[in-house]
Specification:
- By secondary structure, this protein is α/β, with parallel strands linked by helices.
- It has helices at 15-35, 43-52, 90-103, 145-148, 155-167, 179-188, 194-200, 204-211, 224-243, 261-264, 290-307, 329-343, 360-363, 386-389, and strands at 4-7, 60-64, 73-79, 82-87, 108-110, 113-115, 129-132, 139-140, 172-174, 247-251, 256-257, 270-271, 275-276, 279-280, 283-285, 312-314, 348-353, 371-375.
- The strands form five sheets. The protein has a six-stranded parallel sheet with strand order 8-9-10-16-17-18. The protein has a five-stranded mixed sheet with strand order 1-2-4-3-7.
- Helix 2 (43-52) packs parallel to helix 3, helix 5 runs parallel beside helix 9 and helix 11 (290-307) runs parallel beside helix 12.
- The relative contact order is 0.08.
Length: 390
């Protein structure tokens, strides 16, 4: 297969030198395109190396390589005295560099700290090394990380986390930050006042639980300034993920509405969802109700305007409780998925496998070709019963 590559010179805070490095990347990509070789932009991967390995990035040559039988792959080799790593995608390429560091150079970069040793010269691989990805998606994070861990991270902290995840071969990650503004704009479309809907939207450390339908209205109202700040932050996060070939998994709309929604729209069929950990849960709008499709269309339109499209959307119906009432769950699941498909044809619906979810009646109503289940119930024994669960 044809391959392309570029040597990464040492990056210093000097604009002319950086321009030379980027020019080298562009020339390599241009040559690859002319030769008909598979290619993608190497600059985002080069940026990760310069941030994580500033003193050694110049010793690693990056290149592209064709996939094999539809599988992402990487190759590590000795290229005239330099370490050369090629990948079929940005994700495969960066994981190849990480694989080389772990198993050839015996160095480590991790979310919990780095062990980079003192040797300045990286060892050459003793022979070419090739590996293929086993799975199409390598997913990171669950919905609670944005509450327990990440709600107040600044950009340098986010940038480092994304770099390490990309280095670990991750190519899908949930992003909940900024969805407060999507909810705000959506319900403003349906007559809610600015103050009323900001009072319904909870503060950052609890917004993940609002998106999962567990609570609302905590410690509000959220300020307009914070909404704007979180949108700008989320847009930067999503842009970086896309640069590195990571699919941003965005929350979808499955029916959460303010408690007084039925008073504003008396004909709407809204089911109270009870309490969760001492909080009142948002109401659940019956997905068969004509209002559901209208609200979902508004939600996805605003989300697209702010963050673009994705191919995976997270929706946690009946997360740690909730009630279907008189709603036939298979039909509700069908209509939730239909609203997603109308907005994003071919997109996958992500669900958590946690405690009693996903429910069998919910699964029976969805097109499983567009289902993406994340099993986080790690204490479940035995593990092999998951095959019958989903």
């Amino acid at each position: 297969a044809f391959t392309t590559g570029v040597m990464l010179g040492p990056m210093r805070p000097v604009v002319p030198h950086l321009a030379k490095v980027l020019l080298g990347v562009l020339l390599a990509l241009s040559a690859a395109h002319a030769a008909g070789a598979p290619s993608f932009d190497l600059r985002p991967a080069a940026g990760v190396l310069h941030r994580l390995l500033p003193a050694r990035a110049a010793q690693i040559e990056l290149g592209t390589i064709a996939p094999k039988d539809g599988h992402e792959r990487f190759r590590i080799s000795d290229a005239h005295g330099h370490v050369r790593v090629e990948g079929s995608t940005t994700s495969a390429l960066l994981f190849g560099v990480n694989w080389y560091l772990k198993y050839v150079a015996k160095l480590q970069i991790s979310p919990n700290g780095d062990r980079l040793g003192t040797a300045r010269v990286l060892p050459l691989p003793p022979h070419p090394i090739e590996r293929e990805a086993r799975y199409r998606y390598r997913y990171a994070l669950n919905q609670n990380t944005d509450g327990y861990t990440m709600p107040y991270w600044d950009w340098p902290r986010w940038q480092h986390e994304i770099d390490v995840l990309a280095f670990s071969g991750i190519n899908a990650m949930i992003v909940e930050r900024g969805m407060d503004t999507v909810l705000y704009r959506t319900f403003r479309d349906f007559g809610y006042s600015d103050r009323k809907i900001r009072a319904w939207i909870t503060q950052p450390a609890h917004q993940n639980w609002q998106l999962m339908g567990n609570l609302c209205c905590f410690d509000g109202p959220i300020s307009k300034a914070l909404l704007a700040k979180r949108v700008a932050s989320a847009q930067r996060i999503v842009a970086r993920l896309r640069e590195l070939g990571i699919t941003p998994v965005l929350p979808g709309f499955y029916g959460i509405v303010p408690a007084d929604f039925e008073r504003k729209f008396p004909s709407a069929h809204v089911l109270p969802q009870g309490d969760w950990a001492g909080f009142t849960r948002p109401g659940w709008l019956d997905p068969r109700d004509p209002m559901f499709a209208k609200i979902a269309a508004s939600f996805y339109r605003h989300q697209r305007e702010l963050f673009g499209d994705s191919s995976i959307y997270d929706m946690e119906v009946f997360q740690e409780g909730g009630s279907a009432g008189d709603v036939p769950v298979p039909e509700a699941a069908r209509d939730v998925q239909a609203a997603l498909q109308n907005a994003h044809p071919g997109a996958d619906w992500m669900m958590l496998a946690w405690q009693g979810n996903p429910r069998q009646d919910l699964l029976s109503g969805v097109d499983r070709k567009h289902l993406f289940i994340i099993d986080i119930d790690h204490d479940r024994v035995p593990r092999d019963d998951r095959e019958k669960d989903f």
